[in-house]
Amino acid sequence: MDENGFRQFLKRGGRKPHTVDNVVKIVRSYEAYLDKFAERKAIEQATPDDLTRYVEWFEQEEEKSAKGQLWAIRYYYRFINNKPMILQASELREERTVKTRKFFRLRDFLGIDTTYVEKLEAFGIRDVYQMRSWGRTPDQRRELSIKTDVPKEVILELVKLSDLARLPGVKGIRARLYYKAGIDTVEKMAEQNPDTLLVAMREFVEETGFEGIAPLPKEIESSINTAKKLPKEIEY
């Protein structure tokens, strides 16, 4: 490990001295593992499989999540610009974050038929993350409809609402508002002009008597800016 260069990289990123020391300590431990259990590989030579095995070993030895280790190790691979390892560290960390994160429940969306939600819950799909995972593609949605006896159009509606729920502050009422107004995907939100959308939402709420107030300018601006940055998750 190029420790001096790595320390400078962390400092340039605004990391405080105690954080720099902690990150370097974790990366050293990862290096020690590679030396002992991965044929004495240098950290620069490690593969995604090596990192996966390290995480499994660490969690078995320490009996706790390796999220912190992956956070630190990812920094080193950013420092040396090893993209495959950055991606592997990110994916492994996301898997562990998902296990402890509480996601918005499907039954809390405005205007949802709870009969269908109960069928999905019985199948094991209760929140927006699970809905996006099971309904990512048209084929998956068709299969899910058959397995749960929930109409395909309802499955698609819930997938779109769950996709919109990735936006900050867009949950039960806001997601339904955008869906009913035709802004039913993250991609469509990314195409909007803030001023135009603000006027459109105010008019929609007034003309339809929608249950809830129109979003504020800062809300709309935040949703559009976030939508532009989010990766595409759903295939239509």
Quick structural summary:
The chain is an all-alpha fold and 236 residues long. Helices cover 68% and strands 0% of the residues. It is elongated and about 65 Å long.
- How far from one another are the termini? 45 Å
Number of helices: 13
What low-confidence regions span 5 or more consecutive residues with pLDDT below 50? none
Amount of beta strand = under 5%
What fraction, in percent, of the residue positions are helical?
A: 55-70%
Main beta-sheet annotation: none
The gross shape turns out to be elongated
Number of strands: 0
Question: How many distinct folded domains?
Answer: 2
Rg, rounded, reads: 22 Å
Structure description:
- With 236 residues, the protein is mainly α.
- 68% of the residues lie in helices and 0% in strands.
- It has 13 helices and no strands.
- The model has no long low-confidence stretch (mean pLDDT 92).
